[in-house]
Amino acid sequence: MHVTEHFNVEDDWIYVPIYPDNLNTMKNLINESFTYDENDKRIQISNNLYKANGKYNLFNTCNSWTNNILNQSGIKSCYWTPFSYQIINNLK
Q1: Going by C-beta distance under 8 Å and a sequence separation of 6 or more, which residues neighbour residue 1?
Q2: Beta strand spans in 4-83 (E)
Q3: What is the per-residue pLDDT across 14-48, written as a single tens digit (0 to 9) for each?
Q4: Which terminus of the chain is more exposed, N or C, with fewer CB under 10 A?
């Protein structure tokens, strides 16, 4: 998983209201996506890259992963998301 830290809100971000229960579910699902070592620490491959569960392929992309996290967290999601704009437009 490629993880990017953001320290400020970007101009092109959209606001998505999320209830605390949905947010907790989302956090748990994201944490479950990482692979952990015997000390329960995320396995880091490089600066912002971590070992994850699952395999990346045509039908399991970063967009589909994001969409599945939204769906399982009870947040509006798409049927299929080969492109990120579908998720973004769906949440506007």
Answers
A1: 33, 34, 49, 50, 51, 52
A2: 44-46, 49-50
A3: 999 999 999 999 999 999 999 999 999 999 999 99
A4: C
